[in-house]
């Protein structure tokens, strides 16, 4: 699923207890850019590549993005070993 708004990024970071600076560094973007992107409550006003890098970092950390008409996030279920 695709990341669609800043609220999803904020929620994902909260679930992961991840600071903005850490996410920005991991995604290779400036912290000010991430703060601006997170301020969008509607569709994101950022380059697709930038949003994709943020999404990849969060998904790698265990986040699943949802958009069934109500965009959201959740932690991926632990895999059975």
Observed structural traits:
two-stranded antiparallel ribbon, 81 residues, 434 Repressor (Amino-terminal Domain), single chain, mainly alpha
Count up the domains.
1
In the CATH classification, which architecture applies? Orthogonal Bundle
The end-to-end distance, rounded to whole angstroms, is 25 Å
Q: Report on the biggest sheet.
A: 2 strands, antiparallel
Looking at the structure, the CATH topology is 434 Repressor (Amino-terminal Domain)
CATH class: Mainly Alpha
Write the H/E string, N to C.
HHHHEE
The residue fraction in helices comes out at: 40-55%
- CATH homologous superfamily - what is it? lambda repressor-like DNA-binding domains
Characterization of the model:
- The protein has 81 residues and is mainly alpha-helical.
- It has a single domain (6-75), classed as lambda repressor-like DNA-binding domains (434 Repressor (Amino-terminal Domain)).
- The protein is 49% helix and 10% strand.
- The chain is built from 4 helices and 2 strands.
- It has helices at residues 6-16, 20-27, 31-38, 48-60, and strands spanning 63-66, 72-75.
- Strands 1-2 form a two-stranded antiparallel ribbon.
- The model has no long low-confidence stretch (mean pLDDT 88).
């Amino acid at each position: 699923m695709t990341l669609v708004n800043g609220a999803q990024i904020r929620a994902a970071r909260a679930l992961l207890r991840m600071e903005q600076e850490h996410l920005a560094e991991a995604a290779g973007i400036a912290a000010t850019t991430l703060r601006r992107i997170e301020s969008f409550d509607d569709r994101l006003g950022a380059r697709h590549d930038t949003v994709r890098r943020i999404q990849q970092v969060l998904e790698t950390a265990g986040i699943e993005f949802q958009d069934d008409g109500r965009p959201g996030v959740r932690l991926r279920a632990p895999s059975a070993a």
